[in-house]
Structures are given as C-alpha cells and as structure tokens.
Design a protein that fits this description.
single chain, alpha+beta, elongated
Length: about 250
C-alpha cells in the first residue's frame, strides 16, 4: 500500500487538533517553525498542509499575521437533477431562488470558434468545425459560485434567433428551452464530475487560492436522436459549495 504523503498526514493531524478544540475558530495557529518541530517534519510540509486546509475552508491565511482557524461557513448546496430544467427561465436562477438566494451571471460569447479536438469529440463533430463558445461566471448574492465554458455546434443554431445563448429574445433561457425554439427536443444530459485544483484563471474568477480544491463537471446535452447539442466544462469551488445529485426512482 502506497504511503500517504507527509503533508496529507500533517493536515489530518491539524484537523484533528481543531476537532478536539485545541484551537477554536478565530485562534491563531503556532508558527510553522513551531509546528514543524512538534510534528517532526520540515516547514515546507507544514506549509503545504496549511494550504490544503485553507483551500478546504478549515483555516484562513492572513497576510502579515499568520494562519487562523476559520469561522464555520455554510456551504452552498447545489442540486444537479433531471428536473432542474424549468420551462420559461434559467435553471441556475430557479435553483438559487429555491434557496432564497439571488442567482445571476456574466457571460462572454465568441461565435465561429474552431472546435479543439477534445470538444469536437464530445460534440460528435470534426476538429476545427465552427462552434459558439460562451464563458460564464455565475454569482450567488453577488459572490462567485462557479464558472463554466459552453460549446454549441454552429451548424445547429446558425441563422436562428438562438445562435447567441445570451443574446436575442431567448437570452438566458437555458439549453433545453432554447433548442426547443428551433424544433430540437433535448432528451437527456450526461454529467461527469471529478475532483481537481483551480488554475490561476479559475482562482481569480472564483475568489479562491490557486490550487484550491474544485469539482469539475463535464456536461453534455443530447437531443432525442442522441445528437450532442451542447457541452460544457463547469468548475465549482469545493470549500464553498457542495454538489448533490438527485436521481429519480422508476415506479
């Protein structure tokens, strides 16, 4: 069995000391040098352990002051469900409204972008075929909650009123409603979540540290003839959001 990296072991030790209330929210941790001596490791191991716990929201780093036990914070519950597509509006806005929160977003769309190889494979088109690409920053009560990049084959929406996801009379309606406007019935969506770490751009947009833990979701919408009509890469910070999947039970 592969041995656990030292920084993960130390992170568990620090987390347990917090759970045992040796340190409570608001308390300043001992210096890295002191912790390194207590734990019998180098200061770099302590630094990596603290950075991990900061990314998880357990600790809080204060420039020029030190590292503190973070105040408990409620994680935003984000439900992924086949029922989340609601007719006549944005699923994200409806989801946040059900939690008593205000869901908004900012977007930037680029039309006629050549599909890179991985996106082309997901959409069932040739590499270099044109797509409409939209980058989103989703906000909850004005604070960043997730980012995503959406790709739609240009040949599907070209010349229609829905060619721009965030422009025209159906702006912000969501993939299902928009596709319905041009006679395409979206029958199902496939999502593949996996853990990851925020890169520099994602960290800036999400207001987290570079390398903070995130959940990446690769999502693809399919029409009733199994044709992919949209695919997206969604990034959600693990420290502030929890993802729950709602699975229907057949009668």
């Amino acid at each position: 069995m592969r041995e656990q990296p030292p920084y993960l072991r130390i992170a568990d030790v620090l987390r347990q000391r917090i759970a045992d209330q040796e340190w409570t929210p608001g308390d300043r941790l001992p210096s890295r040098a002191q912790l390194a001596q207590e734990c019998g490791v180098g200061e770099n191991v302590i630094r990596r352990a603290q950075e991990l716990l900061i990314s998880l929201g357990v600790l809080e780093g204060r420039t020029g002051s030190g590292t503190y036990v973070a105040e408990p914070r409620e994680r935003l519950r984000m439900v992924r469900s086949q029922y989340r597509e609601q007719r006549g509006g944005s699923p994200f806005r409806a989801d946040m409204a059900s939690l008593g929160k205000r869901g908004t977003w900012e977007s930037r769309t680029d039309a006629k972008v050549p599909a890179p190889a991985d996106i082309a494979a997901r959409l069932g088109i040739a590499e270099g075929d044109l797509c409409v690409r939209t980058a989103y920053e989703f906000l909850v009560d004005g604070k960043p909650a997730q980012v995503s990049t959406s790709w739609e084959p240009y040949e599907i929406t070209s010349g229609t009123l829905i060619v721009l996801p965030e422009g025209g009379p159906h702006a912000g309606a969501g993939v299902v409603d928009r596709m319905a406007e041009i006679g395409i019935t979206v029958s199902h969506v496939v999502e593949q979540p996996e853990p990851g770490q925020a890169n520099a751009d994602e960290a800036t947009l999400l207001g987290v540290q570079r390398g903070a833990l995130v959940t990446r979701i690769q999502r693809t919408y399919y029409s009733d003839d199994s044709r992919p009509v949209e695919t997206a890469d969604i990034v959600i910070p693990a420290a502030t959001c929890e993802i729950v999947y709602e699975v229907p039970v057949a009668p």
